[in-house]
Every structure is written in C-alpha cells, then in structure tokens.
Amino acid sequence: MKKRKILISWLAFQQDFNAQEKGEDLIVNPSGPNPLIHEFFFDYDLHVILHIDQEESQYKAAFLRTWLQKKHKGHKVEFKKLSLPSKDVINIERIQAKITTELINFRNDHLFLYVTPGTKTMHTAWHIEHLNPDLDTTLIQIREGKHTQSGHPELIKIDFAFDHEPRAAIAREIEISNGIPSDKPIIPAALIPAYQIAEKIALTDKVSCLILGASGTGKEVISKYIHENSSRKEQPFIPINCSAFPDDLLVSELFGYKKGAFTGAESDHIGVFERANGGTILLDEIGDISPKMQKTLLRVLQEKKIRPLKATKDVDIDVRIIAATNKNLVEACKNGEFRWDLYYRLSIVDIHLPPLLEWGEKAIIRLIDHFIEEKKHIQNGIKLNLSKEAIKALQSYHYPGNVRELENLISRLYVVAWPNGESKDLPDQIHSSSITNPLLLESVVSEAERFHIERMLRANDYVKERTAKKIGISTNTLKKRIKDLGIDIPPK
C-alpha cells in the first residue's frame, strides 16, 4: 500500500504574518514559511500545522486556514492545537513529548518535517523525531531566494550519514547544579522490569497506566517516578486515595464545586483535576470506586473535560492518569464489579509490582539501611543501631504489609528501642511468622485451595451442595474447608 506524504510544520507566529501597527488588520505574509511552501513546493496529501494553546495562536491559525483555503483550494490542511503554554516553547522535553504523541498517529505515512517555522528548540525536536525508528521521516527546509543563485527559493532535504544502525534519540533537560536527589528510589533486581516499563511510559505525554500490586509495594513511589522523569515533572503530581471517600465527596474532591453547591460549600473549591492540570494524577485504590463513579470517570477520560458541581461550563483538562489497585481488576470485570471499558482506558500499559518477600534478602537489607537513615530525624539525627539478631529476624520475616510495614517497623524501633535495637524489641508477629509464612509449601497449597473453592462457589451461586459435587467432595467436607480457610459467604 502506497504511503501518504504528510507535511508537518509549526505555525510561524511572526514570519507567517506581516508585522502590523496597533489596530491594523492581520495580514498573511506570502513569503512566510508556511505560505511559501504552498506557493512553490506543495506536493503532499496533507499538511498538518501545529500551534500552541494560546488565544493569539488560535486566532492566527484560524486566519491562516481561511487564507490557505482561498489561495490554495486543492491543498488539504489541518491545524492541531497542542496543550503547550507559551512559556514551554523553549522546553525541549515538553515539546518532544507533545509532538511524539501527535506524530505516532502517522506512523504508517511518510512524514516531511518542515524545520523552518518555530523556535530553535522546536527545530531541535524535529531533528530528534527524524531519528525515531518508529517513524518514516524526511527533514526539509526552504532556502530563501535571496540566498540562492537563481533568486528563487529552494527546497532543501536534510539527511544524516551513519556508520551503524542509529538508535532512537531521547532528549531531556537535566539540572546538574542540585546534585543527585536524596529520594531516589531503591530499585532491586525484582523491580527492574517494572521500572524499565515506567521509564518508557515517562517518555510519552498522555499514556495512562495501571499499577498492580499488594498494599505497601510502592505503587505511589513508582507513579511519582514516572511523573518526575516525564515532561510533566514541572507540573503537579497529586495522589488521591479513592477508597477514602464516598461517592459524593470523591466527585467534589476530583472535580471541584462552586459556592453554594451543597450545605457547607461557602466558597469555590478547585478539584484535583484542575489543580493537577498539565501534570499527573494517581488514582489509588481505583478498584474500590462504585459503578456510578466508574461511569463518571470514564466520561471524563473520554471527553477530557470536567464540570465542577453547580458550574455552568465544562473545563478542559490535560492530565496523565495513573491508576493503582491491589485488586484483580480482570476478575472484578468478569464478576460485573468493574467496567471493562474503564479498565481498558486505564490499563493501556500495566505495571506489576511484586511483594517484598520476592525482593530477596539483600534488597531487604538495603531497605533497612535506607529507612534507618531516613528515620533518624525521629531522634534528632542520631541513627539507630540494630543487633545482628534483630537484622536476621527482619530478613527472615515475610512482610504481609510489604515495604510500608518494614518502614513502620523501623519507625517503631526508633521510638521503643533507640539507640540499640535488639531482637526482643521486635513485635511478636515477627517471631511467630512461621505460623502464617506464605513461603511455606502448606501455605501455598492452602492459598491455591482457597482460590479454587472461592471461584467454584461464585460459579455455582454459592450453593454448597452443587459446588461440592462439582469439585468432588462431600458437602460436609466443603463446609469444613470453608470454615478452616476463612472463606466468606455473602448473605443471600
């Protein structure tokens, strides 16, 4: 199938228009970059002109569109507004994320990237896109007639020669004056696959993701890592625990409200989506929201608009959504507890975080050292010393509360055992952990049995006689296993 030829350029904010005195009408400059290519060199199926989200840019884009339609009727042109404030036109990382998101829509076409319009930073962005192996691109420029022997403008192709296969280029602006951040996360071998995916997500601008893992495994930490390594890092990162609010409060917290929206609303309240505009929202415990709230959230994600309570107008939003849950959302969807369409919206990319017991003993030692250093402020900066026996006990424990439980244990030791923590200072559950240790084979077998019985009970509408027959045991045996395994039977 023949590829379309797509011309991509920026709106030349100044050069595409003649300078005007105050009060004069806007006039298109025929010698400006975009009008010029239509006059002499237009041989494309489509011209996409990008412009920033600014009132004057939108006005000029509309004016140029009208002019091109009249002057070059057969030329197909589309204008694309990017949510890019004017202050960001020199921010290579912000620009790059925006245009990559747009250009990926044309990955099956041949793209001609018109370098001339835009700022120097925008020019740099086109050169980087030219190195993107997922895109078929040609860099072009126009050499003005005053710089050519013929006196006519010339179309120039820019190319690169490589001695080996080029790799995709990624541009980032990294401040080095502040040194290495102290809150850099500990990334053990067990978490490397998750953080490799997080790195790729960070390089995109809008892709949502779903982080799956038990409570305390670091879902907020990796969410913040994505945000801080993305082009949105200068904008807010706001986590919100969805399970902490009933529906009415969650709606007002997410979308805001106007004064008088309900009893006690004595002033306007800006919701999380507006406060995080341009940045990232973490919707933690997303699996706990009600069906009604799921429908509301789906509509917001589809339309990219919100309306505060009692407001008369919608508000455009530009946020990346990261959702997190300790629940199996696929099972929840199968059981009718969670919407499939919302699940697919949230889980464009999944990240699975393993429990702490899968990190390995070396990683646990690093975490212990990290939290001892981090929590020393509890005792005016003087560090806690742990005995070998205490460290061994902490290493051997299985941590059902994961990283958060370990962090809380170190805080507790600073309070009850500082300056020297001994094994005897640890809570009783650590010394008796073998009773409930999920690493023991019998625990694994019991958990598998529990899962199978729960699944079969659901499939048979919790009718014990029918379930017992299906799995090949007596009804009395099934009742005993339900009791021993602590399986909950919903009331009829």
Structural commentary:
Helices cover 38% and strands 14% of the residues. The chain is an alpha/beta fold and 492 residues long. The chain has 4 domains: 5-158, Rossmann fold (3-Layer(aba) Sandwich), CATH 3.40.50; 189-352, Rossmann fold; 359-435, Helicase, Ruva Protein, domain 3, CATH 1.10.8.60; 441-485, Orthogonal Bundle (Arc Repressor Mutant, subunit A). Helix 12 crosses helix 14. The longest helix has 19 residues, at 441-459. The model is unreliable at 162-183 (pLDDT under 50).
Number of domains: 4
CATH homologous superfamily of the largest domain, by name? P-loop containing nucleotide triphosphate hydrolases
Structural class label = alpha/beta
What is the CATH architecture descriptor of the largest domain?
Answer: 3-Layer(aba) Sandwich
The number of helices is 18
Record field, number of beta strands:
15
Sheet with the most strands: spatial strand order: 3-2-1-4-5-6
Name of the CATH first level of the largest domain = Alpha Beta
The low-confidence parts are: 162-183
Query: How much beta, percentage-wise?
Result: 5-15%
Biggest β-sheet description: 6 strands, mixed
Oligomer: single chain
Ends: how far apart?
60 Å
Topology:
Elements: E1 5-10, H1 33-40, E2 46-52, H2 55-71, E3 77-82, H3 92-103, E4 110-114, H4 120-130, E5 136-143, E6 154-158, H5 192-202, E7 209-212, H6 219-228, E8 237-241, H7 247-255, H8 272-275, E9 280-284, H9 291-303, E10 305-306, E11 315-316, E12 320-325, H10 329-334, H11 340-346, E13 349-352, H12 361-374, E14 385-386, H13 388-396, H14 402-416, E15 420-421, H15 428-431, H16 441-459, H17 464-471, H18 475-485
Parallel strand pairs: 1-2, 1-4, 2-3, 4-5, 7-12, 7-13, 8-9, 9-12, 14-15
Antiparallel strand pairs: 5-6, 10-11
Helix pairs in contact: 3-4, 5-6, 12-13, 12-14, 16-17, 17-18
